Kinase-like protein
Amino acid sequence: MNKDIEKTVTEIRGKFDTSKLSDFITNENAISSNPSVSLGIHIPKWQGPLTIKQFVFGQSNPTYLIIDANNNLSVLRRKPFPNSKLVSKSAHAIEREFFIINGINTLNERSSKKVPVPDTYFLCEDESIIGYVFYVMEYVEGASIKNPDMGDLAPAKKDQLWNSIMDTITAIHSLDADKLIESLPEKHFPQFKKPKSVTGSSASYFERQMKTLAGVSKKQGETVEPIPHFDVITQYILKNAPKDPVKKMLIHGDCKIDNFLFDKQLNKVIAVLDWELCTFGHPLFDLANFLQPFQIPNELNALFFAPLETDVGKENSASLQLIQDKLKLYKQKLGFVWDPNDPSNDPVKKWQVGFLFGLVRLSVISQGIAMRIKKGSASSANAAGFGSLYPYLAELVFGDIRPPKL
């Protein structure tokens, strides 16, 4: 294990039965014959003994590095609890993540625009193996970038990376969503397998999201203070958000620079990670999520990216210009419009409502952290800081949507 990898892992913090894992994955027949195992692209031949470390990231779903006797590296992601102890059946949906990545890999074989993702090996839903549902995939060695302004990289290198980023985002949005859905098991994707006449839903992505966020915020508001102006903000989003594109589109759902892995020379994106929140919806949200740092106040970015320093934010005119430039680059690389019948359904024209929706979502997440703090179940050392943000975030949104005083 090289020094760069060593910096990203620690000894195992989230314990599980590593000996049972070793016995299982070094026995190819045990994997392929288990009825609760779904196979991916291929299964490597792991040789024991195994060395297992835990990555410093992966707070939602604990993530581990597996190194076998031949120094082959793999990644294991598991749920934080057994299924019976999860608060929500839809939470920590690593099964969805496995099947989406596996489906993307299959579609990449015949797509001109390829979405870079790790190879999937297998998903194990048999909790008797290590006590949790887990899956194993390829380890992709690369470089991560935390700071959205890309630090001290030369302008030409930044342009090169932005081109690769937009190639990747447009590849996600260009993927044949219907073919992907065909490959997904109904057990884990029932909402996409049934016609709308059966599910009774014809609501747009933003309508569905706002309904969900409103319900979550209301529940959280029973424990902590409610989000200021939430009803007014909701009405604004519902009135101004675009309808879904004509073409069904996959969205990543957590599209941000630290979920993109770059090659060591920082020439291009080599993997997109963390697909747990992906769905089929409106691509505006992916763009709003990725470009959000360039329009929020710099003091927020200073908090989010600490201890890294960054000068991006709405106070910097170059940041605001970058948003417009990258939205136009996205349009150019996508090669088709979201809705030929509605010219306003456009990333540049709808940017503001997408950006504000992203802040609303962030405020609900912050309120949830505040609720967990009050209940004594927040584990992060930074929880108090993030949990105090939601009134401030709501005021930012309200300040942008309220009519000017006469």
User: Anything to note?
Assistant: The mean pLDDT is 91. The CA atoms of residues 6 and 307 lie 20 Å apart.
